[in-house]
Amino acid sequence: NVPVRLTDYRPADFLIDSVALDFRLDRTATRVVATLTLRRNPKGVPGAALVLDGDELTLVSLKLDGRALGPQEYEATPDRLTLSAVPDGPFTLEIETRVDPTANTQLSGLYRSGSAYCTQCEAEGFRRITYFLDRPDVLSVYTTRIEADEREAPVLLANGNPVEAGKIAGGSRHYAVWRDPFPKPSYLFALVGGDLGVVRDSFTTMSGREVALAIYVEHGKEARAEYAMDALKRSMRWDEEKFGREYDLDVFNIVAVSDFNMGAMENKGLNVFNDKYVLASPETATDGDYAGIEAVIAHEYFHNWTGNRITCRDWFQLCLKEGLTVFRDHEFSADMRSRPVQRISEVRGLRLVQFPEDAGPLAHPVRPSVYHEINNFYTSTVYEKGSELVRMLRTLIGAETFRRGMDIYFERFDGTAATVEDFLSCFAEASGRDLSQFALWYSQAGTPVLSSEGAYDPDAKTFTLTLKQETRPTPGQTDKKPVVIPVALALFSENGQKLDLASRDARPEELSRGLVELTGAERRLTFENVPSRPIVSLLRGFSAPVRLEPAPASADLERQLAFDDDPFNRWQAAQSLALRAIFARVDAARQGAAAPEAPGYVAALRTLLVGADADPAFAAQALSLPSVIDLAREAGSDVDPDVHHAARMGLRAEIGGALRADAEAAYARFADKGPYRPDAAGAGRRALRAVALDLVAAGDPQKGGALAQELFRNAGNMTDRLSALTTLALLGGDAREAAFESFYKQFADDPLVLDKWFSLQATIPEPATTQRVIKLMSHPDFSLTNPNRLRALIGAFANANLTCFHALDGSGYDLLTRVVLDVDPRNPQVAARLLSSLRAWRTLEARRRALVEAKLRDIVAREGLSADTRDIATRALA
Ligand code: B3K
Ligand code: ZN
Q1: Catalytic: which of 124, 218, 266, 300?
Q2: What tens digit of pLDDT does each residue of 450-467 get?
Q3: Which residues form the Aminopeptidase N-like N-terminal domain (predicted)?
Q4: Percent of the residues in the chain that have a pLDDT greater than 90, as a whole number
Q5: Domain residues for 495?
Q6: Which of 322, 374, 375, 377 should be mutated for ligand 1, with most atoms under 8 A from CB?
Q7: 221: domain CATH number?
Q8: CA-proximal residue: ligand 1, atom 2 (nearest)
Q9: Are 266 and 300 in contact, with CB atoms under 8 Å apart?
Q10: Does the annotation mark 331 as catalytic?
Q11: Are residues 122 and 142 in the same domain?
């Protein structure tokens, strides 16, 4: 397994202008005839042999310009087809392969989910269907004919527009032909065949074209696709309004399947989805699920322009489509819901996964320069940090200039396979700025640490702010250069008055925008006319993906929480106060001292709770304590999750005790009124109520338990029911077991709801949970082959139950490695992803570190390990 390097990029030696695919669907022996029209690429090596990619393929026959080739005229292995002598002019190649969709447990290529046939080709799954130049810079026009048994697969779908369909005489077979006029890379190919229900709608584009929309789901679940359909129409309108992007085919189809390696896939005109991101009803889906559906539907739809019309030259450019499309879906969610609340949850997500990734052995640049297995690079760094880079670019050049740059990008690179340089060149042109330093963000791994120091001079009435940056070494990258960091800032007087910024050390537009740029290792700014020591609001709106150190003094944080006009920094102030209070408890526990209380923080929370009606969603976020994962990340080294968990629970009890009456009042005040609506306002009220319930349970377990049981019984929607069950799960005892049992009985036939049932049990933070998880693995509803179910139980255990997963007896690590090794031969992508839950293992204290290291060494030593899992294990040991 040789590494692939960005610097080794060479254009393909051949181009494939058109592809005609003919599928005869069969459960175990599907026949595929691919007719390719090829010609030499003027940019390729003259006279080069034609080498096509394959993966576990069986070649049936091969014809060149209509003539059957003998075995001495080519070389075919399961993973390569080589023709050393091909014409210099254009020619056609007809390749017949046979594939077994039922045996395809990797869920890459053509496989079966339930009784349906479906495909997943990104990144390199097309080569598991036919031999091809399976690389994103080879763009072709596809025609797809599908033939199948009409009883088994009445629905036959592929990319593009439907051309023709009919019955085949003498039997029960039928066919459909689809044509996609837009040249695309093979990773965007898709096909679906099955017996599916459908929801239909239509959309009139900005230029008045009618697009037929359809979402295909399991029969009987049509009503649950209505929210997804609504989200789709809103996405289509939004992309027209905000980016001027119109949809381009006559149809847009979405198919929901229950066996899927990730969230969804943006195949041209035929998105295939994990049904988790399509199906929702108030009884089965939470507010979080609805928000997730809205975001993923939008994300895949937005790929039509950022990913499909303009694709990536090579897989190193993955962030070009992913980071940009995440940025677009974030903006969409911000417009559909609450912008501040959306921003806070983006940053929470970034810090939960991307920051640890960037600080650990799996760290890599947003645009990596080398990979062994590309599927392991669909990471939080490429997606979420990639999105932050686009956001920073917009912050630096301004929203209008950014939009002009996007217009240039769409205009200039439509129909091509582009690079990050191509993308940046559009913004350099639109803004007239040199973006070469900005480009470092794409090549340099690691989270920069931004530190600040302030000094007030009461005589001169000046305030001097010193900003410094430093990026620590990451694997393979020791020397880090300073990057450009847009630092949004404001100064407030003691009583909350926002001060005008005056300084000779900043450009006038920096002062008027409240945005200074740190480009070197250090910058000093002296602000004038500052009447008293100011309160500094730094990195407002999280203007750059950096770690800000140190947090301001607690008294300043309390003031910021009270009057900062940047909601993100108000939330940040609450988080910083909570972190300080928890770490004070950690220190005390380590010294055997009594737990220190945090009266200032608790008083600030009381104000938030009492005033929650103004913005319940925001209050719910500000009232939520950092998770144990947050604590581990902030500690950075010598992590003992038990100590962190205990300190966190201690603070939770302190808050619950102090705010009991206010929490009970809030719980009553925010009771659901009227029918459930999955909108942001309703979701905010329910989130606040869940926080209130948790506080009541923290302060008075008996009262909390009683309220939770009542809510569990009478909940009118899944959001409330799950909040109640979460509280009961934490409280333990017979009530918990009874609730889990009744939940199971009620939803035993609903896989997506059962996933929640498995997850919640896996995350109970008490020692017995590991045994519970092991027992659940023999539950009749558990399955190692369904990725959703596997992630629900084992993924949740390893990623969200730190005390059990990192148990000192090694039982959590045993469980994870056993499952990873069991799943690996069947589904390497999912196994490797599970193993990535060890991304932060080096920050653990010594005993746990030794346990993990031994496990990783054991995995690497295994024979027959997949390239995916080997890659993660090897890099994790770096
Ligand atoms: N582009 C796909 C991800 C494919 C992952 C392949 N291992 C979904 C998305 O990001 O929209
Ligand atoms: Zn994407």
Answers
A1: 300
A2: 999 999 999 999 999 999
A3: 75-188
A4: 99
A5: 449-544
A6: 322
A7: 3.30.2010.30
A8: 265
A9: yes
A10: no
A11: yes
